[in-house]
Write a structure and sequence with these properties.
By secondary structure, the chain is α/β, with parallel strands linked by helices. The protein contains eight helices and seven strands; from the N terminus they run H-H-H-E-H-E-H-E-E-H-E-H-H-E-E. It starts with 6 loop residues before the first helix and ends with a strand. The structure holds S-adenosylmethionine.
């Protein structure tokens, strides 16, 4: 799953993003997103942060949620809107060009779920802390934080294998985009440290991809 780092290249070509991610992850990300979205109930109010082309937003709306998807990349959002139209979900989803830094505009205790797919790994440490704090603030008590992302493995040999993969892919990505992603360190600890109760954690075999569900107490 460390090939997720290649998503940076795909983001610079939004039209190829969805196909590229599907090929890179061999459909596994679709299954993870389906599982996370299955936690959304009819009439839930959902925020998808760093929504990109809408992979999680669309699924949440298909579950009956009323969704707001935010992202700073207008081209990704254009594709998300087209996808929502095609699925007749445009009444259920509002996509907006907005960064996480603007989350403080959202009302406290107002969402049933906050979703984040391949997004936290794009943030600097202080942005991540801010996002988690804001997610907690805007969720209703009992509301869910649903996360899928790349993480750093704990076991030394897995760390080494992962480090070597990232070295290669990181160089490729940097050549194409002059940016890179950061596999997340201690994500569950950071989430519980922000006041969430962890409900479940699922790691892939390489222990470098996490599917996490947490709840605001
Ligand atoms: C790898 S994509 C994931 C998109 C989508 N969640 C998915 O799973 O397909 C990460 C997205 O985060 C967005 N992003 C990066 N930094 C952001 C920020 N500070 N605020 C909002 N969106 C941001 C990028 O524009 C990009 O669309």
């Amino acid at each position: 799953m460390s090939t997720y780092i290649l998503m940076k290249i795909l983001e610079s070509a939004p039209k190829r993003y969805d196909l590229g991610i599907r090929l890179l992850t061999r459909g596994r990300l679709d299954k993870i997103y389906d599982r996370l979205a299955s936690r959304i109930k009819e009439e839930d109010k959902v925020l998808d942060i760093g929504c990109g082309t809408g992979a999680l937003s669309l699924r949440a709306a298909q579950q009956g949620g009323t969704v707001k998807g935010i992202d700073i990349n207008s081209q990704m959002l254009e594709i998300a809107k087209i996808r929502a139209d095609k699925l007749n979900l445009d009444q259920k989803i509002e996509f907006g060009e907005m960064g996480v830094a603007e989350l403080d505009r959202e009302e406290a205790d107002s969402y049933d779920a906050v979703m984040s797919g391949l997004f936290f790994s794009e943030l600097a440490e202080d942005e991540l802390s801010f996002s988690l704090r804001e997610a907690k603030r805007i969720l209703k008590p009992g509301g869910l934080l649903l996360v899928a992302d790349e993480v750093r493995p704990d076991k030394v040999y897995k760390k080494i294998i992962n480090g070597l993969r990232r070295l290669f892919f990181g160089a490729v990505v940097f050549i194409f985009t002059q940016t890179t992603t950061r596999a997340l360190k201690n994500l569950p600890e950071k989430i519980s440290g922000s006041g969430f109760e962890i409900e479940s954690i699922k790691l892939n075999r390489g222990e470098n991809f996490i599917e996490l569900i947490a709840r605001k107490p």
